[in-house]
Task: structure prediction
Amino acid sequence: MATLTINGQVHEVNAPDQMPLLWAIRDVVQLTGTKFGCGMAQCGACTVHMDGEAVRSCVTPISAAQGREVTTIEAIGEDAVGRRVQQAWLDLGVAQCGYCQGGQIMSATALLKREAHPSDEQIVDAMNGHLCRCGTYTRIQQAIHHAADTEGEDA
Amino acid sequence: MSTLRDTLLLANVSRRHFLKGLAAGGALVVAARWSPLLADEPLYGAEAMPNGWVDDPNVFIRIDEDGIVTVVNHRAEMGQGIRTSLAMVAADELGAEWEHVRVEQAPGEEETYGNQNTDGSRSMRHWFAPMRRAAAAARTMLEQAAAQQWEVPVEECQVGVHVVMHTPSGRELGFGELAAVASQLPVPERDTLRLKPREEWRYIGQDESSRKRPFAVDGEDIVSGQAVYGADIHLDDMVYAVIARPPIYGAQLRSVNDEAARALPGVIRIIEIPTVGQPAGFEPLGGVAVIAENTWAAIQGRNALEIEWDVEAAGDNARYDSTQYREQLEEAASSPGQLVREHGDVAAAFNEADSLIEATYYMPHMAQAPIEPPVALARLVDGRAEIWAPIQHPQAAREGVAGQLGLAVEDVTVHATLLGGGFGRKSKPDYILEATYLSQALEGRPVRVQWTREDDLHHAYFHAVSVDHLEAGLDSDGKALGWLHRTLSPSIASLFAPDPMHKQDFELGMGFNTMPFNIEAIRLENPEASAHVRIGWFRAVYNLPHAFAIQSFAAELAAAAGRDHRDYLLELLGPERQIDPRNINESWNYGEDPEQYQVDIGRMRAVIETATEAAGWGRELAEGRGLGLAVHHSFVAYAAVVFDVEINSDGELTIHSADIAFDCGLQVNPERIRSQMEGSIIMGIGIALQSEITAHEGQIEQDNFHQFLLPRMGIAPDVIRVHLVNSSEDVPMGGVGEPGLPPVAPALCNAIYAATGKRIRRLPVGNQLTS
Result:
């Protein structure tokens, strides 16, 4: 049994401690925006925030999420930076199939929160752990710059 | 299009009402097309697809009284943007304002919607015309409704933007106000419809301006985590399944000890699924399923199974070793094979030649590896099967499930979710048949079968490994006098029938038969090759190895001749002309009419010229830097790619830019065509540099993305420039999703050669630049 705070809501999750946060979010809490892609932190589709930091929920046991604030893609728009990133994704038409994009947006938001105007190298460092089989990387890079440039504007 | 066929169709167009347009079936529309009267006539394009096309507005367009226009999309959405693009077509022809347009996904139901098999880059070229006619019919019905209401001649009524206007009086009525009356009217006859000329289009062909707003219909849902993919449906009482499948194609289950698995918390039941023989077709591979309360418990349960497989049942497959197999194909490539196409006398040309060049190219197996692995949810209720799944070919799923459970196809409902990538993997419904099998075993209870990444890589329908051997004879000026190409790959046909050992027409037609060079003596051969894993479609399919070999070899000839690659390539292509597929023994032609769809050398030359000019072909480059070019015709479209790369003294590659010039004829949604081209560049970089599936003793050696490598942001070009050309109604429409991909790997390898002098003949490049 674990007590998880996800998007500001407290959930009592009746599951073994070692269950990855991903499956607690998806199967138990039934928030489905966080995606399964590999199960071993290779693709980033499962990325969520834990206390504002981007983590791979597929390799994070629920025991490690106890007492932390977990944020998923469903709630990232409530954050000003998150909303700007979402808008940048729309403005630049980043998504193709869209499956990996929730995770990409979570990492991009975490990056912009710690580095308001990242360089190309910083963007690659932050995003290289994400796979997009549709191949949207150049637009993701542009969208992160675009989101940085729209800082202070109403999203 | 034959008027006879149109007449037959018209006679049966149902008069259902577009206000409630989704209620009933439209089987009559389709039934008419398969009249025996027409059986002898060769069919092409959408006509030739199972269940053909439908253009009944009642099927595709609904207008509610609040003015919202709902366009029904019946094709699978996997990132190519068809939900947006077909709705743009309908909105334009109808005169709808985009912000009042919604898109609704049709279930799998070809008897109503026509063909839904979303592969072969066919959606737009097969559905542009029917969707326009459906919308034009609806627009006409709205005008007639307004005329009735105003009691004026219909000629005085015209659709504007989401309204019908009475021009003489200046009166207007909104679509919503007219919907009820319009829905009572008969559907106008097809030959009376007026299609809007291009200058009246507001959405079709719109490019940069579409950047100004979230044009894609699913954009908001995607960025907020609300978009619904295959694993995102929850039903009460559902359970979760993960399956241990035979590790070798053809292996059978000998015994399973499930004691430890059953003892795990959350594990509900263990169910054996009969293992399939060969060929497997779309059948599930079988194995042992762990049914659990959640996905993770099911995965843990599977890990705890102790299974003995009867490996010998797999026969030769149990000894399949991809390295030995490559060597075997390379050896076989030195001997003649089945003749596919011949012009002139290659042996004589080689005798006459001043120099002979030869090279052998290799492309390995690959997995489609969509980031969403296969997944399906199924339940059985009251003798009906209901399925939610990401599937490119819902009708194949319905037919498969009907056969499996002894149901009528009409009793199998497939709700198509968004696909988290398809790339050919999700054309095959094996994972859906697993879910229905398990649901039946659980008395109809809803079951979600979740594939892990390991499952996806171990049990893909793999891209065929390919060896291509080429020889050419050049005269003293470097001109090619003769060209010999032998291609060896296992055939996809081996999935459905005893292994034919040869590529089939539809496989040879993907860039092999259609080799476009203007050379006097040509000989194309296809020696035997056997299949030892499930072989299946992968985006662009056999075009990938054919383009890699032909476009690499053309560059090798240019180098041997001491000529500029672009100039030499244009010379190989020769003058602008149409190559009739029937004259090059090409019977498949992507299913299209050879009268209409020919290989257009002028368009091929034009994309080369556009791409090379944009990339600054011929400019001075620093040491270690090079430009590489390739061109390819596939899916009745034309693409040329130029890479600008740099390789440092440590062998590290930087891709500065990619230019891709693309001609698919009329561009309906240029913005999405651009993103498809960008994606093709990235995927092609992975094919060139990284991606390889290998087998040893019949088992796939790559477990996850740490071993099956895909391109990441770090290897992406600094810039990708897409040049869309020839958006013309004067040429027949081409495909988009696939044709950008084939020239990418050879262009990149040609750039590596230009930068380093190192010729890559075996993919992926891997560490060949550092060793």
About this structure: Residues 55 and 69 of chain A are 12 Å apart (CA to CA). Chain A has two domains: 2-71, 77-149. The longest strand of chain A covers residues 2-6. The domain at 2-71 of chain A is CATH 3.10.20.30 (Ubiquitin-like (UB roll)).
